[in-house]
Amino acid sequence: MSCNHRLMSARWYESERLERWSYTVGAILLILLGPGNISDVTSASRSGRDWVDLGIWAIATVGFVVFAVRHWRNRNKPVRSSLVGWIDPADVPVGDVQAAIAVTSNRIAAIKSLREQHSGLGLNDAADMVDTELGRSRNE
């Protein structure tokens, strides 16, 4: 698993910006369609179908608004891609761990660097790998 894997996961349908704007535009369109649905139900010749349409419209509008607000609130928080997945610690080369340690003398920064390089690596796995390599370098 290399940096190429990270590039492969950045596809147009995983764009946070596209998803955020699609929910926003969808919510706006549903809100604009609302008065027509409400007037159909409040008219004298209302039917069961009008009530069903109003219910579907209300649920869809609330859903789109909730998701749009959630995406706008979380727009600056990084989200892990579902395509990145989990990386087996055995697949991470020892040279990458040594390079992460060589960049800084701080253990936490080395763990962070290793996880940035291998985005599917778990925190405990990265910490164990850095600690193991630090133990080896101290013994030599």
Fold blueprint:
Blueprint: H1 3-8, H2 16-42, H3 48-73, H4 94-103, H5 107-117, H6 123-139
Helix pairs in contact: 2-3, 4-5, 4-6, 5-6
Rg, rounded, reads 25 Å
Strand content: under 5%
Tell me the series of helices and strands, N- to C-terminal. Answer: HHHHHH
Helix-strand category: mainly alpha
Question: How does this structure look, described?
Answer:
The protein is an all-alpha fold. Helices cover 69% and strands 0% of the residues. The chain has 6 helices and no strands. The protein has helices at residues 3-8, 16-42, 48-73, 94-103, 107-117, 123-139. Helix 5 packs across helix 6 (123-139). The longest helix is centred in the first third of the chain and has 27 residues, at 16-42. It is rod-shaped, with a radius of gyration of 25 Å. It starts with a helix and ends with a helix. Residues 1-9 have low confidence and may be disordered.
Q: Briefly, what is this?
A:
By secondary structure, this protein is an all-alpha fold. It has helices at residues 3-8, 16-42, 48-73, 94-103, 107-117, 123-139.
Sum up the structure in keywords.
rod-shaped; 140 residues; mainly alpha; disordered N terminus; 69% helix; 6 helices
